From TrEMBL:
HAMAP family: Ribosomal_eS27. GO terms for biological process: translation. It comes from Promethearchaeum syntrophicum. Part of the 30S ribosomal subunit. GO terms for cellular component: ribonucleoprotein complex; ribosome. The keyword Zinc applies. Belongs to the eukaryotic ribosomal protein eS27 family. Signal peptide: none annotated. This is Small ribosomal subunit protein eS27. The lineage of its organism: Archaea, Promethearchaeati, Promethearchaeota, Promethearchaeia, Promethearchaeales.
Length: 65
């Protein structure tokens, strides 16, 4: 491990692959989404903006790096 590894900040948010519980469609969203995200297929609300970290209202399939 290098001393420079501690100097480079790591991001606190990630992209998430989420799956709609209503129709099964998958989408990729940002973990700190600033807008409401709805399913492309059935229009169900999947993500709610909170001003910081987004509130995920459905199942998270994968965390992308």
């Amino acid at each position: 491990m290098n001393d420079n590894d501690n100097l480079i900040p790591q991001p606190k948010s990630r992209f998430l692959r989420i799956k709609c519980l209503n129709c099964g469609a998958e989408q990729i969203v940002f973990g700190c989404a600033t807008v409401e995200v709805r399913c492309f297929v059935c229009d169900k609300q999947l993500v709610q903006s909170t001003g910081g970290k987004a509130r995920i209202l459905t199942k998270i399939s994968d965390v992308l790096s």
